[in-house]
Amino acid sequence: MKNNFQIPSGMHDILPEQQNVWQKINDTLSSIAQFYGFQRIDTSIMEDSELYIKGTGESSEIVQKQMYTLKTAGGDSLTLRPEMTPGIIRAYLEHGMPNLASPMKLYASGPVFRRERPQSGRYRQFHQFDLETIGEQDPVLDVQIIQFCAVALQSLHVGPFIIHINSIGCNQCRPHYKKALKDFYRSKLRQVCADCRARYKTNVLRILDCKDEKCQRVRTQVPPILDYLCEECHNHFKLVLEYMDATGFSYIVNHYLVRGLDYYTKTVFEIFAGDVSTSTEQTPVALAGGGRYDGLVRLLGGKDTPAVGMAMGMERIMNILEEKKATFGKEARIRVFLVQLGDLAKKKSLGLMERFRLSGIPVQESLGRASIKSQLRIADKVGAEFALILGQKEAIDGTVIVREMENGIQETVPLEQIVSYLKKRFAG
Ligand code: HAM
C-alpha cells in the first residue's frame, strides 16, 4: 500500500513562508481592482464541459488538449475551469446581471487547471487574477484593463515588463485576413513545423504565434493583420493606441500576437516579463493576457454584448518576487511569550490567550511543551520582550509572573490585571 504521497505532477503548494508575498499579491490586486470599480465574484470551479467547448473554443489548445474533465455518476460531463471568463459570463447571464447598470465590472481570483507539460512557471494548477468589463464597447475600457495590469505590476515592483498589443479584427474582417494567410502559407507548408501544418487547417491565425524558429523566420514576410482591419476595427485600434499613449506606459504593437482562445475580437494584449531588449526571446514569460471578446455573451445565450477582460498568472508574479527576495512588511513583533506549566495553568492559558487577542496584544505560546526551561528558550529565540510564566502555584493563586527577558527581572501580577499591566509597560 502507498504511504509516501507526493503532490501530482504540475501541482504545487503555497507554503507558510511564501504567504507574506502571496497575500501581498492578492491584497494589492484586489484593492486596485476595487479602486477601478470592479466588484468581486466567485464562480464555481467546475462547470458543464460544454461551456468551455463553446466558450473557450473547440479549436483552442485548452479544449483540445488541456481540460480536466470527469463524468459524474449521473452521466454529466464536468470540467475543472481552465480559465475564468466563460464561467463569469455564465454567472452574469444566469443571475440577470444584464439588467443591472452597465458596464458590469467584475473581478475574480482563484485556481484554474490546465493539463500542460509542467516546466518552470508552467503549472497544471495555478491561480489567476481576472477582470471582466461586460457591456461596453468603448476602447477606453480596453485600455483601462491594460492600465490595471501595468499599475498592479508596478505597485508590486514586478518589473521590468513589456506590453504587447494587437488587433485581430472581427467576424467581418478577420475571414479576409485568414484567407490571405492561407494564400501566403499554402506554398510554404514545408517550411513550417508539424503543429503549424495542422494549424493551417484548424486555425491558421495561430501559426503567427508559434515559437518554433523556422516558423518565426517564415512569418517575417506575412502581411500584417492591421492592413486587413475593417473601418470599425481600424478606428477602435487607433483609439486604443491613443488612450495607451495617454496612460504613459510604453508598449509594442505586435502583429503576430493572436492569443490562444477563440473568443477574442479586436484588441488583444499580453504582458511579458522583461523589457524591449528581452522581448524577442524564444519563450518570454507571460504575466497577463487578455483582450476584447464582443461575441462571447451572445454565444453563451445572451444578447449581443461587448466585453473586454484579462487574467494575470499569480504564480508567475510570485516567482519573480521570490527571485527578488521581496518581503512586504514584517509581521507584528511578538513582545509577549506565554509560558505555562501544569494542567490548571494550561486551562487558564486558553482563556488568557483570548483576552490578549481581544485586547490586540500579540502573544505567542507553545502549549504542549512541558518544561519551563525549553519554553523560555523559545521565548528568547523569537525575541520576546516579556515572558509570562503561569505555573501551578500562580494558576492557583490567580497570578502570573512577568519576566523581563533582557535582564531576568521578575514581578508577580494578578492575572486579572495582566492586560492593563502590559499596556502600561508597553506605553512606558
Ligand atoms: P491566458 O493568456 O490563457 O488568458 O492566461 C492568463 C495568464 O495566466 C497568462 O498570462 C499567465 O500569466 C497565466 N498562465 C497561463 N497558463 C499558466 C500555467 N500553466 N501556469 C502558470 N500560469 C499560467 C486567459 O486565461 C483569459 N481567460 C484571459 C481573459 C479574461 N481574456 C478576457 N478575459
Please outline what is shown here.
This protein has 428 residues and is of the alpha+beta class.
Protein described:
The chain is an alpha+beta fold and 428 residues long. Helix content is 37%, strand content 20%. The protein has 15 helices and 16 strands. Helix 1 packs antiparallel against helix 5, helix 1 crosses helix 11 and helix 5 packs parallel to helix 9. The longest helix has 17 residues. The protein is elongated and about 90 Å long. The termini are far apart. The mean pLDDT is 94. Bound molecules: histidyl-adenosine monophosphate. Histidyl-adenosine monophosphate (HAM) binds next to strand 6, strand 10, strand 11 and helix 11.
Helical content (DSSP H or I, runs of 4+): 25-40%
What's the number of helices?
A: 15
SS content category? alpha+beta
* Ligand list: histidyl-adenosine monophosphate
Number of E-state strands: 16
Radius of gyration in whole Å, from Cα?
Answer: 28 Å
Strand content: 15-25%
Strand order of the largest sheet: 1-5-6-11-10-9-7-8
The averaged pLDDT comes out at: 94
The stretches of 5 or more residues where confidence is low (pLDDT under 50) are none
Head-to-tail CA distance between termini:
61 Å
Coarse shape: elongated
The major beta sheet can be summarized as:
8 strands, mixed
